[in-house]
Every structure is written in C-alpha cells, then in structure tokens.
Amino acid sequence: MLEVIVEGRSPLLALAANIASWLLLLALGLCFYRLARGPSLADRVVALDVLNILAVAYCALLAIASGRAVYLDAAIALALVAFLVTVAFAHFVERSVLREQPETDRGKNDVDH
Q1: Taking the alpha carbons of 107, 110, 112, 113 in that order, is the dihedral positive or negative?
Q2: Which terminus of the chain has a smaller tally of CB atoms within 10 A, N or C?
C-alpha cells in the first residue's frame, strides 16, 4: 500500500515515516475536497497552495526515509516554483476583485497622502 521503505533504519523511524505518509495522504484528500467544494476562488487558491506544501513535505519525508539527498533538491525546487505560482494566483485574484468593483468604490480603499 502506502508504506515508506526505510532502508537500514530503526523501526521507530519506519513507524514514524509510515504514520507521516498516512497523515499526508489524509491532508491531501482534504485539500482535494476543499479544491472541489471551495465556495470562493480564494479558497481554491489556498487549497492549491497547501497541495504544493504537502508535495514538498512528501519529498522531505522520502529524503528522510530513503537517506537520499536528491529528494531534498526536488523539494527545494518545488517550493520555489510553488511560491511563484502562489504569487501569480494572488495577483490574478487581486485583479479579478478590482475588475468587479465599480469605479467609485476603487478610490475609497486608497489612502490620501
């Protein structure tokens, strides 16, 4: 099933890695639920960001369980790309909210200097 193979490690580390992988799977399922049922676009964007975080966490778990540092390199690269995607989504959401506001409401949020 979803058991992480811990090569030459202690049984406690193997148990912790297996529990962590099951918890990550549960969190992944909950994120997909929020992604499908999210009442707003912002909820869906946050769910996608959490999915990226979970992918980074799973790469880190694989690095710990297998003892291979290549998974940490993949986690760092994925985290950098996920950050850029989150910033792009935030910019997109901000622009869509500004488009929905009438012209008279846009000036009320600005601070006069």
Answers
A1: negative
A2: C
**Res. 112 pLDDT band, cuts 50 70 90:** low
DSSP the chain: --PPP-TT--HHHHHHHHHHHHHHHHHHHHHHHHHHH-SSHHHHHHHHHHHHHHHHHHHHHHHHHH--THHHHHHHHHHHHHHHHHHHHHHHHHHHHHHHS-HHHHTTSSPP-
Model confidence over 56-90: pLDDT tens digits?
999 999 998 888 889 999 999 999 999 998 888 88
CB 21 within 8 A of CB 28: no
80: Cβ contacts below 8 Å, ≥ 6 apart: none
For the entire predicted model, the pTM comes to 0.74
Q: How far apart are CA 8 and CA 6, in angstroms?
A: 6
